[in-house]
Design goal:
Layout lengths: L34 E6 L3 H16 L3 E2 L8 E6 L4 H17 L4 E6 H5 L1 H5 L4 E5 L7 H6 L25 E4 L1 E2 L10 H5 L3 E2 L2 H13 L4 E5 L15 H10 L6 E4 L10 H8 L6 E3 L7 H6 L6 H14 L4 E8 L6 H14 L3 E6 L17 H24 L5 E9 L6 E5 L4 E4 L9 E10 L2 E6 L3
Helix pairs in contact: 12-13
This protein binds iron/sulfur cluster.
Iron/sulfur cluster binds next to helix 6.
Length: 458
């Protein structure tokens, strides 16, 4: 829905084209009145893609209904990063079939790419599309020539809005060519492929024009952007162009690999408030033996040097990370090295993942499997190591001003909440009309992993 409800380019077509809308009195409307429901599991990329699919179907007369309701069509964008993600997809497919046995279930995404036969065999499944042919689904359902496009991991029309979100994700690349030992993604998302710069700029400009004040650049291996493009200035070059888009908005980077994190990003953060001073720099382990076994391609020392260079330019940068505990062969000493490394780097946030074996990955055949009890113990120990680091980082902002993108109003206490530029969750009094806008706040006190703030601007 365009922010002021007027018919404009900002999408929100759902109730834009009531059945009586004359413009669509053509054969392409034979799908009108067909109801459709969308659901995405997993990462930001999947959420971006389900939005692109949503806009395509709604533009052609379909009417969206909640996923739990009876629908003529269900579109499910699956994930396969863990065993649990596969299970969740199967449960949802069964639930759709139960809700409407006549419903046509269209399944795509990483699990659909990894195990198409398994999914095709489930009741109600009419179409299984792999990751590289998601942009064919609309054509396969409608048969409309006007929507046919060349098979690609990118959608020709891109997106114009983001359902139920105050910020918008923009997909800039797909695939990964690193093949880390534990990771299934390169097998389901394919090798690195970058989107052409002009379509990224066009889409970002459109989203900013439609009022989105935070754009999250997303990809499977974000920092690899442009490696496959002639004469490309890579991610930093792209960001410098996006920053030139006039208007008040900011760019956030989704997770990035240390091998592809040029210090230039920190330079840009220093030069312009438009690039959030926050990096989610995925570490995975702080021990060189395990990093080697993971085929991560860097050492703890190299990672630390990169962090020092970045902090040298942006001392208050928010640094978050991902760590896997229980990777095959991880003994107590390896684990202790990871624990002390996290302390030394002092990340302000970290996702700790228990190792999840994925078939076909190199790690799946490694010896030295770690018992689940040990994995659980290490997971708990790392979270205990991280808690004081988070607190120390939050304390350093008490009394300081931060800029928060207001995302929602909490039901339990009616406070507004959102993330600051350096990715701290902040809560404060304010009216819900501020949702989706950048607001200046002053940090007053700490509550768990959040800052309780006062709103400075209205
Ligand atoms: S860089 Fe990331 S996406 Fe690529 S293989 Fe490694 S963990 Fe997977």
């Amino acid at each position: 829905m365009g922010r002021d409800g007027r018919v404009d380019e900002c999408g929100g077509l759902e109730n834009r084209y009531p059945f009586g809308d004359r413009r669509f009195e053509s054969s392409s409307l034979r799908h009108t009145r067909k109801t459709i429901a969308f659901r995405s599991l997993g990462c930001k990329l999947n959420q971006y893609e389900i939005q692109a699919l949503r806009e395509g179907f709604l533009k052609h007369g379909f009417r969206e209904v909640p996923f739990a309701s009876p629908a003529d069509y269900y579109v499910l964008n699956t994930c396969t990063v863990t065993e649990w993600a596969d299970k969740e997809a199967k449960q949802l497919i069964r639930a759709c079939h139960q809700t409407n046995p006549q419903g046509q279930i269209l399944v795509t995404g990483c699990y659909a790419t990894a195990s198409p036969k398994e999914i095709q065999a489930l009741p109600g499944v009419r179409l299984v599309a792999d990751n590289r042919s998601k942009n064919q689904i609309l054509f396969q359902v409608t048969g409309l020539q006007e929507v046919s496009e060349e098979e690609s991991p990118f959608f020709k029309d891109g997106i114009s809005w983001f359902e139920e979100r105050s910020k918008a994700f923009v997909k800039i690349q797909d695939g990964c060519s690193y093949f880390c030992a534990f990771c299934k993604i390169p097998y389901v998302r394919g090798r690195l492929i970058s989107r052409n710069e002009s379509s990224i700029l066009e889409e970002t400009e459109r989203l900013v024009r439609c009022g989105y004040q935070e754009i999250v650049l997303s990809g499977v291996c974000l920092g690899s952007y442009g490696k496959d493009l002639e004469g490309s200035r890579r991610l930093a070059g792209l960001i410098r162009k996006i920053i030139r888009i006039p208007s008040r908005f900011r760019i956030r980077l989704s997770s990035i690999d240390p091998r592809d994190t040029p210090v230039e990003l920190a330079e840009i953060m220093k030069e312009s408030k438009k690039l959030c001073p926050h990096l989610h720099l995925s570490l995975q382990s702080g021990d060189d033996t395990i990093l080697e076994r993971m085929k991560r391609g860097y050492t703890a020392g190299a990672f630390e040097k990169l962090v020092q260079e970045i902090r040298g330019r942006v001392p208050s940068i928010g640094l978050s990370t991902d760590v896997i505990v229980g990777f095959p062969g991880e003994n107590d000493e390896n684990f202790k090295n990871t624990q002390s490394f996290l302390e030394r780097i002092a990340f302000h946030r970290a996702h700790v993942f228990p190792y999840s074996e994925r078939e076909k990955t190199k790690a799946a055949v490694l010896d030295g499997k770690i018992p689940i009890e040990t994995i659980r113990k290490r997971e708990k120990a790392l979270k205990e190591t991280l808690a004081p680091l988070t607190r120390r980082y939050l304390e350093s902002f008490i009394g300081k001003t931060l800029e928060v993108l207001v995302e929602s109003k909490r039901t339990k206490d009616g406070l507004l909440q959102g993330f600051s530029e350096n990715y701290i969750r902040c809560i404060f009094q304010g009216t819900e009309t501020l949702k989706g806008t950048l607001q200046r706040v002053e940090a007053k006190e700490i509550m768990g992993e959040k800052l309780v703030c006062n709103l400075l601007t209205t």
